[in-house]
Amino acid sequence: MRLRHWQDEFRTMNRTTLDLAIRYGFLVLLGGLALFFSLYASGFASPRSAVFILQSVAITGILALGVTCTLVVGGFDLSIGSVATSALMLSAYSMVILEQSAFVAVVLCLVMGAVVGLINGFLIVKMRVPDLLATLGMMFLLIGLQRIPTQGNSIATGMSLGEGQVAEGTFSAAFLWLGRHRFDLFLDRLLPVPVVVFLLIALLIWLFLGYTRHGRLMYAIGSNQRAAELVGTNVQRYKIVAYMISGMLASVGGILLAARLGRGDIASGNNLLLDSVAAALIGFAVLGAARPNAFGTAAGALFVGILLQGLTMMNAPYYMQDFVKGAVLVAALVFTFYLSSRRGGRRTA
Amino acid sequence: MPDVTCKLNGLDKSFGRNHVLRGIDLELRAGEVTALMGANGAGKSTLVKVLCGYHFADAGEIELGGAPFRPLDAADAISKGVVTVHQSIDDGVIPDLDVATNLMLDRLTEPGVGLFVNDRKLRRQARTVAESMGLTMDVRTRVADLEVADRQMIAIARAMARSPKLLILDEPTSSLSAAEADRLFALIDRLRADGVAILYISHRMSDIRRVADRIVSMRDGAISGVFETEPLDYVGAVNAMLGHQMTEVDIDPVEGGKPVLEIEGLRLFDNAPEISLTAREGEVVALTGLLGSGTTELAEILYGLLQPAGGAIRLDGKAYLPKSAENAVANGVFLSPKDRSVNAVIPDFDIANNMTLPFLKAFSRFSFLSERGQRRAADEMIGRIGVVCQGNEDGIDTLSGGNQQKVMIGRWLLRASRVLLLDEPFQGVDIGARRDIGRYIRQTAKGRTTLVFVAEIDEALEIADRIVVMHEAAIVGEHINRNVDLNRLVADVSGPSRAQDQRADAPQALAG
Hints:
The complex is a heterodimer of chains A (349) and B (512). Chain A contains 14 helices and four strands. Chain A is mainly alpha-helical and 349 residues long. With 512 residues, chain B is an alpha/beta fold. Chain B has three domains: 1-81 and 165-212 and 219-229, 3-Layer(aba) Sandwich (Rossmann fold), CATH 3.40.50; 93-163, no CATH class; 247-500, P-loop containing nucleotide triphosphate hydrolases (Rossmann fold, 3-Layer(aba) Sandwich), CATH 3.40.50. Helices cover 33% and strands 24% of the residues of chain B. Chain B has helices spanning 44-51, 74-79, 99-109, 119-132, 148-160, 178-193, 205-211, 234-242, 245-248, 295-302, 325-330, 340-343, 351-356, 371-385, 401-413, 431-443, 457-463, 486-494; strands at residues 4-15, 18-29, 33-38, 59-64, 67-68, 82-85, 166-170, 197-201, 214-219, 222-227, 259-267, 274-280, 284-288, 310-315, 318-319, 333-336, 364-365, 368-369, 419-423, 449-454, 466-471, 474-480. A six-stranded mixed β-sheet of chain B has the order 6-7-8-3-9-10, sandwiched between helices. A six-stranded mixed β-sheet of chain B has the order 16-19-20-13-21-22, sandwiched between helices. A four-stranded antiparallel β-sheet of chain B has the order 2-1-4-5, covered by helices on one side. In chain B, strand 11 (259-267) and strand 12 (274-280) form a beta hairpin. Chain A binds chain B through residues 207, 211-214, 216-217, 219-220, 222-224, 226-234, 291, 344, 347-348, and chain B through 303, 305, 324-326, 328-330, 335, 337, 342-349, 353, 357-358, 360-361, 363-364, 367-369, 395, 397-398, 411.
């Protein structure tokens, strides 16, 4: 009975109100949250705190933008977290043990990400393995693979290589710059490099998905693959490219993480996959898009960041974090699917 | 006169402004096969859906065995004794399960069945059902591994397991070979003798000749003719179904200029007969034939979705054998596919983006889309082809079927083509939109050749300069669209009647 009552309430709700709620509800919530924490958590409303939030979401945000591309073509990429940690280990390995330059390390990681994406795409498009299963398999494969060269140990300068040898390479300064340098903006040393990279990538993906014909065709594929194929779209190529973008962005995330940590830490990046997928899915609700989109993904990542930072500053215990993230995700999904279907139902009625 | 099993009284049904059933009165009698004929959109499938509980009638009532019958849903209709075998086979079977489970599935959902499935018992029961149908396959075979025809037989066998009072067969032979169809007809004979009322929906005249005790023709949502005196007046039934519609569209057939598309000795699949056809600039050629006659395969070959088994195609004198849709479009061969919701519509996009989808490259510079260009082109096409909408930003889902189809066809008229292939362009389209589309296709026909693939004869008559009839993957007739001898045309479409099969020189490729 309660449910029926609720449904009636929605039905009697003015259509424009509903439309507005779907469109701007999430952004209003985001603003309200920021306002709430500014008032009740001292020190929340400051440039440094804002940058801190951005920094905390930069890497998950970059991964989330990658997974957004695969969601757009109707796919999914579960391997992004392990691609990022693989990039973390690979960059450390190439600099510390192989004693290569920062440039070589970055290039190696990007190539690795692209190749993983290519294999994912190949498995899904040519071998017809369902996307979730293919990328799940790839995830396990990479989690194992990244530990083989070091027998499961983390990589740091001075680590023992056996037979009395010691790793003599170091993380180069140029590489660490990627994770630690801060640009001056109004205040000295305000804007960290990862934040700039995140904002740039978000802008690029936003333009690519929203305003180029390639992006439009990718959305068409996600909406009706058969129809996209029959207007002469090379569906297979676009799908593979989507997974390659996802793989490369994941390895960008891994590089930035390595540069911030300054060591090949085997235990980092455990949360990357779930956090970034959550950001991309929350993004569905932003502006009532009801589909994956770059702006939504960035806003979704930001939303989670603000919430966690605010709660931390209000001394909420750390174990609250996952619970809060889950609650936000569920609320966003209800927003997207339930409310939008209401609206859709009204339109055709 | 036998007992009336099912009686329809003033059945009425509308979808929005679309008045689909207009006061249907019909009696279906026990032990009698009533053939229902009707053109596309005549309301046959809506009538069936009302009977099998899929739609509610807006007005009127149904009586079944003397009691009022108002099924709540499909399951309710079945439990009351109205069983339907739908045209789309996979509606009737679960491909991943084996034959035995499929045959006995309805038993499994009955209340009071135990928790555990006794496989051996299930198979034994299934074998009995299968044998009574003349099915010989191992009941442990997965349905997905069976031939299409066998799957159809399973769907029908499932319906039989419910011992129905009224059995509705919707185009049951469309994917059956001659031998299998004979098996079905034998079964229908047995059911008729058992006193089941059968509503048989088909376009195949040979089937109707074989099984029908009476023929009911439908047109524009009403019954336009009932034929039940021996001998049945088949030509009268076809005329009642087509009505005088075609005189409403006057076609002055054009000859066509130079050949654009030349097909020589093309074989649609292994062991298929050779097809030769020339389509000329400026003419509209309708290819018509029943389901499985090969029209769809021909369209797919021309659009690069299917590779032929042999023969040659020339486009403007040059060899043409597309490997993909992309390839075909690049050569100026466009296809508007059938089943638009599956094959053409992008449900998330608005009108403008749906329309411009194939030509996004032309609407973008350095890959960046010019939204204004897209919208301007869409607006222009909306005006020319007459899409009823608020504006080009309307979601495609907000449009009626006919208007959606206009967008899907308009999509391919944005750019000039050499060959325009239209596969079932009037599917699920109301009569007004159908006229608009037909008119616009003919208006723009200059400078290209247009091939229209339609199963309905009257649709072919409405749009084409020339009508080519296909049957069993062969071309069996050609008619210039001027004072067409309808009886000959209908005879070509329904193929040589079964008695003449032995003498026909067209190989029976599909049979077997």
